[in-house]
Amino acid sequence: MAPQGYNRGTLKIVRPKLGTGQSLPEFDHDLLLRHLFPLARQLIRLGYFSFEMEGLDHVPSHGRVVYAQNHAGWFPFDAFFMMYGLNEAFGAERVPFFATHEAALAAPALGPLMRRSGALPASWFRRPERLPSEAESIGIFPEGERGNTKPFWQAYRMRDWNRGFARCAIARRAPIIPAAILGGEECAPVAWTVRMFEPLIGAPLGLPLAPVPLPARWKVVFHEPVHVAGKGAASDNDFCSGVARSVKAIVQATLDRHAPDRWFGRLSAAIAAAQRRPLAQEAVAGDAEDPLDERPPARAEGPRSDGAVTA
What we know:
Distance between the termini: 10 Å
CATH class: Alpha Beta
Order of helices and strands: HEEHEHHEEHHEHEHEEHHE
CATH architecture: 3-Layer(aba) Sandwich
Largest sheet: 8 strands, mixed
CATH topology: Glycerol-3-phosphate (1)-acyltransferase
């Protein structure tokens, strides 16, 4: 439930300008609060989706925060359901802006819809200190497109994590909230990773296994905050990579705990066992291109909570 006294119809969110003079896109709160979120509620009531949140006591109700979570599915329904859940629990002021690949924002119809819903170009996060102070809640998928274009038989096996979210948290002096999102693999499964258009659009594509979102059991698990402000510099690649490894391990442990209860999770585990590959084998992308990192990255040296909401 939204906080008492919260009026969806009169909410006004002001979008200031970046330090570079570039304006943030308008956040169409009517689109979310009067159309998309009510549609999600109705689909949950009808049983097409189920939705649950765990660990809400770890989520700050005010102040800056950076969410770091896994990514899956040919469409970012995982971002949408996280926004939906935070709106239900804390109100629209705590709905995060999400760093989004420029290729997605350039897509016809999809790009404008995502911008209206609070998506920001990932390149803007290369200088997180220039993001406006009013944008308190930030969501970053450290896997990037590698996560949401992986095929369904690799479900819940996270790809390597970039360290840009750690840099963002340090620069903004914000805690990191690790979050595990379950449901994206089943709702929007990817049949195949298509790379033939990558030289043209700058990112691979996930070929949908089904053209519409499938019924899914959505669950978002928030973990204890990770505080990095004052412990290292945003320019310290080794420190930021270490933070990324630590946060990724927290999220992967939760995915490993819940994946056996899901069909795609069991399939992925069986294939991984046959290939003798551990689920959390991939390391942080210390030498991968990070869309949130403006510097050439250096090579790295070689319980559940009692705060829960269900719907």
